[in-house]
């Protein structure tokens, strides 16, 4: 771990104290995990504390850990299924942080919106809601962003079928777009294997 990363880790531990669930250093990056109950207050402190000063939210995305490491035993296999991961930047101190929080309820994943803290979270949270079904409480305009208004389900969930549930097409007789059950038949595609010894006709 670099000296700068070690300095940030020490500051996080001293400022947040008991609110740190996990603080891991890997590949020259720090990942801070906090509970859903402390998510909003921790995010606010990460922005406002002068020792940290994370003024910018670079990214926020949803995560589905239901098949994490293909079902291998891990710290996530018995834990909550859905999480949100934020990437923060401090321009003042020139350091970055990954902030992670798990939604405690798998059936209705809910987390506080951090849009009031970083307004760049607006569309990121709408995207996570659309694709993963994570509800951000306190978001003023939480609606789908990338899928159609009539879309059913959340396509980035690991259990969402590859072909989807419905398809839409233009019906010339009705002169409008209609929805209907998916007509694509599921099939398995087996890739053609090219062995190196015969590649390109060389023997």
Brief summary:
This protein is α/β, with parallel strands linked by helices. The chain contains 3 helices and 9 strands. The chain has helices at residues 3-16, 39-48, 121-132; strands at residues 22-26, 29-34, 56-64, 82-90, 95-102, 110-112, 135-137, 166-171, 176-181.
Would you mind describing this structure in some detail?
The chain has 203 residues and is an alpha/beta fold. The chain has a single domain, classed as Beta Polymerase, domain 2 (2-Layer Sandwich), CATH 3.30.460.80. It is built from 3 helices and 9 strands, in the order H-E-E-H-E-E-E-E-H-E-E-E. The protein has helices at residues 3-16, 39-48, 121-132; strands spanning 22-26, 29-34, 56-64, 82-90, 95-102, 110-112, 135-137, 166-171, 176-181. The strands form 3 sheets. It has a 5-stranded mixed beta sheet. Strand 8 and strand 9 form a beta hairpin. The longest helix is centred in the first third of the chain and has 14 residues, at 3-16. The mean pLDDT is 88.
State the helix count.
Answer: 3
Helix- and strand-based class? alpha/beta
Q: How far do the termini sit from each other?
A: 49 Å
- Strand-and-helix sequence, N→C? HEEHEEEEHEEE
Q: Please give the number of β-strands.
A: 9
Question: What's the number of structural domains?
Answer: 1
- Strands of the largest sheet, in order across it? 1-2-5-4-3
Text of the CATH class: Alpha Beta
Mean pLDDT: 88
| Most strands sheet | 5 strands, mixed
Beta-strand percentage? 25-35%
- Model regions low in confidence, pLDDT < 50 over at least 5 residues: none
